[in-house]
Amino acid sequence: MIMMNKTQLAKMLPAVVAVLGGGVILVWFFAGHGMELKERVPGMDRSGAEAGGGVAVVKWEGKLIKGDGVPANLNGVWPGFRGPKGDNICTDPTPLAKSWPEGGPKALWKIPVGEGYAAAAIWKGRVFVMDYDTAAKADALRCLSLADGKEIWRYTYPVKIKRNHGMSRTIPTVTEKCVVAIGPKCHVICVNTETGELRWKLDLVREFSTEVPPWYAGQCPLVDGDRVILGTGGDALVIAVDLMTGKLLWKSPNPRRWQMTHSSLTPVEFKGRRMYVYCASGGVAGVSATDGAILWSTPDWKITMANIPAPLYIGDGRIFLCGGYNAGSMMIQLRETGGKFAVETLFRLKPTVFGATQQTPILYQNHIIGVRPDGQLTCLDLNGKPVWTSGAASKFGSGPFLIAQGMIYLVNDHCVLTLGEVSAAGFKQLAQAKVLSGVDSWGPLALADGRLIVRDMTEMVCLDVMGK
């Protein structure tokens, strides 16, 4: 037996106590407390507490529910965020009315929707919306008939979400074979366009350490050919997965641990390179479409509160960035030398000149058209100089807008729809009507086959805006 003096005992006492304490904890955990180790499941490790807390999905129990709706016999498409070309301009040839009867355009159908701003996509007589079913406590990707709003099918899975200034706020992306959608807690699903049957699913929180943004996910999935591009943040800045299988094709490095924002990605072609531009939490970056390599990045553009508008590609390496919360806007210029890219700031504007709290502006007739924070519709030239504004008497709040056939449709915060002629020369109001009775009508518009889909916090309406 080894004998120790008091000094040696005093030195060893903390270690002995730690070992004994650890043993007691282990005994309590495995025996006395009656608990057992469980398989790690989606959402258990990172719950997104900053966006309402709670476990995202404990066990995947997705199911397909068929309805009695029938697709309309129509061929127009508005397949996702900002329309067919991602520019928020409708080129559908269906003639559009330049005036409305008293009371506004006819409502073809109206349905209740879960609280939020999740807007519609249209594909050949079908309407798709990523909704939240409060009673069932479940996300619900719904497919509706464009003819009457009746549900054709819904794919749903359980997820607990607390009200946090709305819940769902993304737009699905639709192709001939697939619909891709992002839920509030960053669950991504892909289903068959016609049948609603699940093709694949991803839990970005569990699989890529994504942090659910404040007020939940607002990014809309980008489908580029045969792949889906997602700004995840966390373990990867951006990822690409196969559209049909969900298999990971590449992921970008993320050395500064930038996180997901509400902003969607923008594809850009410059100097023979295709890239995806993403406004993440700590700055903006361009990643290679080939392998996800970061081609360039800058921390000079970031919004700490909520980064929402997508980057607007002007052409020739120029990218217009804008935001709310006193961020204003700026134009950056990409430069390429010997295969390496650099970023230069061309100009920066105060929010009183131009900013955008929620809606991405439109590049139209070589001008930038959007609604600035004081609610005025504003037109800038490509050097950032204001060309015209709608004036203090015509304010549109944070609502959406799109351009079609030389006209602009705008919705204000209180569901008043305005129709006007718009060009680089100016804006002229043609008609106006209140089309819903709620508030916060901020979900982006969708237009196809002369049908305009508008939503507020709790209802969605399909309006007949066809010309005679």
Which structural class matches the secondary elements?
A: mainly beta
Helix content: under 10%
Distance from N terminus to C terminus (CA atoms, Å) equals 105 Å
| Total DSSP helices | 2
Note the main sheet. Answer: 6 strands, antiparallel
Sheet with the most strands: spatial strand order: 1-8-7-6-5-2
Strand content: 35-45%
Which regions have little confidence, pLDDT < 50, spanning 5+ residues?
1-57
Instruction: Quote the average pLDDT.
Output: 89
The quaternary structure here is single chain
- Global geometry: globular
What's the alpha carbon Rg, rounded to whole Å?
25 Å
Number of distinct beta strands:
35
Keywords:
2 helices, globular, 468 residues, 6-stranded antiparallel beta sheet, 41% strand, disordered N terminus, mainly beta, 5-stranded mixed beta sheet
How would you sum up this structure, described in words?
It is built from two helices and 35 strands. With 468 residues, the chain is mostly beta strands. A six-stranded antiparallel sheet has the order 1-8-7-6-5-2, with no helix packed on it. Strands 3-29-30-31-32 form a five-stranded mixed sheet, with no helix packed on it. Strands 4-35-34-33 form a four-stranded antiparallel sheet, with no helix packed on it. The radius of gyration is 25 Å and the shape is globular.
Blueprint (SSEs and pairs):
Elements: H1 6-32, E1 63-66, E2 77-78, E3 89-90, E4 106-112, E5 121-123, E6 126-133, E7 138-145, E8 151-158, E9 173-174, E10 178-182, E11 187-192, E12 198-203, H2 204-208, E13 222-224, E14 227-233, E15 236-242, E16 248-251, E17 266-270, E18 273-280, E19 283-288, E20 294-298, E21 312-315, E22 318-323, E23 328-337, E24 340-349, E25 362-364, E26 367-371, E27 377-380, E28 386-389, E29 401-404, E30 407-411, E31 416-423, E32 426-434, E33 446-448, E34 451-455, E35 459-464
Parallel strand pairs: 3-29
Antiparallel strand pairs: 1-8, 2-5, 4-35, 5-6, 6-7, 7-8, 9-10, 10-11, 11-12, 13-14, 14-15, 15-16, 17-18, 18-19, 19-20, 21-22, 22-23, 23-24, 25-26, 26-27, 27-28, 29-30, 30-31, 31-32, 33-34, 34-35
